[in-house]
Amino acid sequence: MTCSAIEKRMMSTHIPPPTEDQWKAIASKFWDKWKFPNCLGAIDGKHITIKAPPNSGSLFFNYKKTFSIVLLALVDADYRFTYIQVGDFGRASDGGVYGSSRLGRGMEAKTLNVPEDSPLPGSGVQGPMPYVIVGDAAFPLKTYLMRPFPGHRLPRWRENFNYRLSSARMVVECAFGILTARWRVLLSRLQMAPHFVDTVVMASCILHNFLTNPAQNRRWQDEAEHTGDMLPIIRNMGGNRGSKDAYGVREKFSAFFNSLEGSM
After folding, report:
1. Chunked mean pLDDT (size 10), the chain, 264 residues
2. Domains in the chain: how many in total?
3. Residue 92's domain spans which residues?
4. Which of 3, 28, 30, 97 would bridge with 203, disulfide CB 3.0–4.6 Å?
5. How much is the pTM?
């Protein structure tokens, strides 16, 4: 009942849908802190382990051979959640979680107040560039969602892109680490029905934002890394193929980072 009240009363104030100005402020901080321009946030999905629900078959059974629900989150440069979705089946894969989420559908339909394309800082060579989300290889490549170049022994300019993207993407891993360091119940197998688990996880994320203090984030993060207490990752969330436009956007970001390396 307490978690339900937290979700009902605090969700709209502590994880509200960002406005256009708020998106721009988030992008500015990603550039200042992680040197990735036009970035709206880092995205990732994690498993929350639960007791096998009665008569659920394999719906909640995941690749780690446990039962779980999925927490999908978008995080800003200050380790705060700007979007969360909780409750997808643990077996979900191949783009099902992200593609069916409000975030995925909203980004595709351009209904989330995302700012218009703008030139990258200090460079107009690439022309106006879209604002993007950064994710790992589990996510599909889109004009608004950047993932690393695949493979090994990549050209230096592609390695530069992957390094910059990985640095920016780590904020979501850190946010999950801080979340579990604070709310250690998320590290155990939750002995409750899935809809109650959803409420507990939602309340934990809301309270995470409520309590987030940049001066304390490092302590929580270091504690989680030291003890190895991290939520299990999601595998095979999205396909590897992207549109021609998406590949073009990634190439332009790569060229921008390469120009920065050359000027240093």
Report:
1. 94 94 96 95 93 88 89 95 92 77 94 94 81 92 94 89 95 94 91 93 95 66 66 58 83 86 58
2. 1
3. 1-262
4. 3
5. 0.86
